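Student: Hello, beginner here. Can you help me understand the protein record under this note? Any guidance would be welcome.
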Amino acid sequence: MSDTAPKPAQRSTYRHGALREALLEAGVAMAREGGGPQAIVLREASRRAGVAPNATYTHFKDREALVQAVARYALAQLAATMTAEQDAITATDDATVTARARFRAVGAGYIRFAREEPGLFRTAFATQHDVSAVAEPDAAGPTGRSAIELLTDALNGLVETGLLTPESRAGAEFLAWPTVHGLAYLAIDGPLRFLEPAQLDDLTNQLLDMLDRGI
């Protein structure tokens, strides 16, 4: 045999024992590139990972399983963006100022994620069958808290500092969440997508001001 015979192609996409991560990475990339969950294709994920399609079934029984895994990844990234907004808050000794800032940061992070990662944002929410998915462990960010848990924590902080009464607190997640989600959705898939970034920034600030006053 010639020493110059071509060698088999080396799989550089995944390490031994990390095929699931490689397939998930491929699914995330497809959601980003294609603008949402419709772009996630199991056979293409296999190709990108460098394995035969049948190998994927060890980790994902079908396309829906991969889509759901990408959605949970997206939800975790959403939580991470919200946490980053909270971490950027200027320190203050005034507990009420901090509580309001942390509440506002949750909404700001939500909308920022939608604008920066529209494909993942669509995947995170367009594929869910019930509300429980947003609080699953796989949907948690770096602090171990999911997006809905971060919102819950922020609302509880308003109560603890006397800014929100316990009576008004009940179910407030389901008032704040749809309000912010509505703007996020209109900014990426509705008529507000035609606004200039500065205009959308201003609109976001106005909406968060309105939500702060309303809550």
